[in-house]
Write a structure and sequence with these properties.
By secondary structure, this protein is α+β, with helices and mostly antiparallel strands. The chain contains 14 helices and 17 strands. The chain has two domains: about 290 residues, Cupin (Jelly Rolls, Sandwich); about 40 residues, no CATH class. The chain binds 2-oxoglutaric acid. The site of 2-oxoglutaric acid has 7 residues, from strand 15. 2-oxoglutaric acid binds next to strand 15.
């Protein structure tokens, strides 16, 4: 009896027993049991989502077009250019550069012939907000640049500097004698009315240097004549919808790498359709108005390039380009309307390749000097950076008997 009473005394009263039972549900084991199922389901779903996304992740663009070619010796090449490519599609033009002395340019000849030339240099940074994802890295002498950046063979290098848009007429006018303006691009309103335009310009880039995907200023069409090395190009149609979400108006460019898009982050980019071409020395590339483009230098490259505005592009210029907030206040959208309107487009078959001096409206280099030098002197009074170029241009023109 005494024992029974003892046992009863150690057993908790019935209401306390149920309380303890309830508490045990919230013990560690209980909590673990309670969350194990939802946690397991969440992990499994996350894993399934990850695997599915990885499985479905595109590894390349669904469609890649090759850039079509046009040979200048084909009868009707000029008409074909205007019918099929002008304002619509990029095209590689062959046979246009074979007689240009610039095809013989080397780092040694540029160094010797342009001793005072200064080259604007840039470094590629996809995160930068600058044009073509190229950060301004200042200016350096062309000869020093070529000595430091070119000739590294195939050794992998990071942070190569890219030399872009060196004005030939200001920095090394003697080189203008070695280049021509291809017939396709000679109907240029800018060279006639917008004297600030300094095209064609020199573009020099060592192996591994590159530009980001961008549209050109005022969505102008672009051409490049390549004299040395190979350049890999990716170009998109002006209205490729898959690109629109990646457009950054502040830099008229795109926040992704067209050569290695991040398909994990942006699977929609697989629906973009690039035109792909490795441009070889001796080839001329045309990129239509507003077409996004970017290039990667597979070798040390030497090229010239230009933008232009021809009468056949004027409708697009005013109706599309100038309606964008980026350009609507630009002088090119209002100040030259009268001049541009009275300019008649030449017939395609009348277009001929021109020397730079003829393209600028002069019979030859001496006549060009007579107009350009006083103009440069006047502009140099207001712009200090042009003062540096005066002795170079004066030296060139005095050689011709200005
Ligand atoms: O050659 C390059 O890397 C790009 C040049 C270019 O696209 C441009 O000047 O608009």
């Amino acid at each position: 009896m005494a024992k029974k009473a003892q046992v009863a005394a150690t057993r908790p009263p019935p209401n306390l027993q149920t309380r303890l039972k309830k508490q045990s549900v919230w013990s560690f084991g209980g909590i673990a049991k309670a969350i194990a199922l939802p946690f397991g389901v969440a992990v499994a779903s996350a894993l399934a989502w990850f695997v599915l996304r990885w499985w479905k992740m595109p590894t390349m663009y669904h469609h890649v077009h090759r850039v079509q070619r046009l040979n200048t010796s084909d009868p009707g090449a000029m008409e074909r250019f205007f019918q099929s490519f002008h304002g619509r599609l990029p095209v590689v033009i062959e046979g246009a550069l074979s007689s240009w002395p610039a095809m013989r340019w080397t780092t040694a000849s540029l160094t010797e012939r342009c001793p005072a030339a200064q080259l604007p240099v840039y470094t590629y940074d996809l995160g930068a907000t600058d044009w073509a994802a190229l950060r301004d890295a200042g200016e350096m002498s062309l000869s020093q640049y070529l000595a430091e950046e070119f000739g590294h063979g195939t050794a992998p290098r990071n942070g190569a500097r890219y030399g872009l848009e060196m004005s030939l007429r200001n920095e090394c006018p003697v080189l203008l004698e070695d280049v021509r303006i291809p017939a396709f691009f000679t109907d240029d309103l800018l060279v006639r009315y917008y004297k600030k335009a300094a095209w064609p310009t020199l573009i020099v880039g060592p192996r591994g240097s590159r530009s980001g995907l961008h549209r050109d200023t005022h969505d102008l069409p672009f051409w490049m004549a390549l004299f040395n090395g190979r350049k890999h190009w990716r170009i998109f149609a002006p209205n490729d919808q898959a690109l629109e979400a990646h457009y950054r108006p502040e830099r008229n460019g795109f926040a992704f790498d067209p050569f290695q898009p991040d398909f994990w982050e942006h699977p929609d980019l697989a629906f973009a359709t690039p035109y792909d071409h490795v441009l070889e020395a001796g080839q001329l590339l045309y990129i239509p108005n507003g077409a996004p483009h970017g290039a990667y230098n597979l070798d040390d490259t030497i090229a010239i390039s230009g933008n232009y505005l021809d009468t056949r592009s004027l409708g697009r210029h005013y109706n599309t380009t100038c309606s964008q907030s980026l350009w609507q206040n630009s002088k090119l959208c209002w100040a030259y309307e009268h001049d541009f309107a009275q300019h008649k487009p030449p017939q395609a078959h009348n277009l001929k390749e021109l020397s730079f001096f003829q393209f600028s409206g002069f019979a030859g280099s001496a006549e060009w000097c007579q107009a350009f030098l006083p103009d440069l002197r006047e502009r140099a009074e207001k712009r200090a950076e042009l003062r540096r170029c005066l002795p170079t241009v004066e030296g060139y023109c005095s050689m011709l008997g200005e």
